[in-house]
Amino acid sequence: MKTLDVITFGEAMGMFIADEVGPLYKVKRFTRGLAGAETNVAVGLARLGYDVCWVSKVGEDALGEYIKYALQQEGVDISYIGSDPNHPTGFQMKSKVLAGDPQVQYFRKHSAASTIGVDYLLPERFLSAAHLHMTGIPPALSSSMYGFAEKALSVMKSANRTVSFDPNLRPKLWSSQDRMVREINKFAVQADWVLPGISEGKILTGYDSPEDIAAFYLEQGVKVVVVKLGAEGAYYRTAEIEGCIPGFKVAKVVDTVGAGDGFAVGFVSGMLDGLTIEEAVTRANAIGALAVMSPGDSDGLPSKAQLEAFMDEQKGMEPCSY
């Protein structure tokens, strides 16, 4: 069995991006793309040269075939993607905007991925990877997917593999905010590296400052917490060190969706490369900045050469402030 650098799992969706500005119901033409937080991370890591496997199910339909084809073209291992003849591949529609966040509508209820359960998990495939990247989305999709996420985390932790966790909050998928906070934190505190956005951190911990948000997780055993601060950069903290790394300058924000996934690509790859935490966060900020300058969720994720060129352009950044 092939040895992997990273394994991740979740739901991929077909994405239809509006070709014109305006409310979705008025748009006549869309461009097809790929969506899904974990697939964005898988694609980003593959473009940087890592061996990464994405685990999921898709429907036996055109969108499912497209997802497998698109990921294979990116170099992502698709050997652990099953096909479900009874449930469809989910999809989403995304508006085109000139500034700010686009409107996104999801069509994912009873999707193939949501039927994944513990019996779908192959421990030996997970253990072929050095690292597991998780988000808070799969546990919200269904009770069976929740169980799968629990088992995947347990298998990797028992084998002393590193785990990163991006909350990626989706309130509409949970029955209540209280339950969302409780369940997301249950997973987060078991991870080695936790990567919340500042607004997510406030919801999940009840604290307002990056320092207090980080302390909340560190006190429960997390090794590294990095709080994403948007354009301002990111705050990081461990039991020994803390600091803030400024964001990279962005010529024009095209689409903010996928920025957090790009950040995860940068941080996880940096840590796997043996960079210092400061260097890993700097790389994360760079890829997050590149991600917002393109329309698709993963269009702006760079190759290693593109990443190095972008980072070289912006040496000597201003100090971080928030």
Descriptive account of the structure:
The chain is of the alpha/beta class and 322 residues long. The chain is globular. The chain has a single domain, classed as Ribokinase (UDP-N-acetylmuramoyl-L-alanine:D-glutamate ligase), CATH 3.40.1190.20. The chain has eleven helices and 13 strands. Helix 7 (198-205) packs across helix 8 and helix 9 runs antiparallel to helix 10. The model has no long low-confidence stretch (mean pLDDT 93). 36% of the residues lie in helices and 22% in strands. It has helices at 37-47, 62-73, 123-126, 138-141, 143-158, 177-188, 198-205, 210-218, 259-272, 277-291, 304-313, and strands at 4-9, 13-21, 30-35, 52-59, 81-84, 91-96, 104-107, 129-135, 162-166, 193-194, 224-228, 233-237, 242-246. It has a nine-stranded mixed beta sheet, with helices on both faces. It has a four-stranded mixed beta sheet with strand order 3-2-6-7. The termini are far apart.
Write the layout of secondary structure elements.
Elements: E1 4-9, E2 13-21, E3 30-35, H1 37-47, E4 52-59, H2 62-73, E5 81-84, E6 91-96, E7 104-107, H3 123-126, E8 129-135, H4 138-141, H5 143-158, E9 162-166, H6 177-188, E10 193-194, H7 198-205, H8 210-218, E11 224-228, E12 233-237, E13 242-246, H9 259-272, H10 277-291, H11 304-313
Parallel strand pairs: 1-4, 1-8, 2-6, 4-5, 8-9, 9-10, 10-11
Antiparallel strand pairs: 2-3, 6-7, 11-12, 12-13
Family: Belongs to the carbohydrate kinase PfkB family.
Protein name: 2-dehydro-3-deoxygluconokinase
Organism: Paenibacillus naphthalenovorans
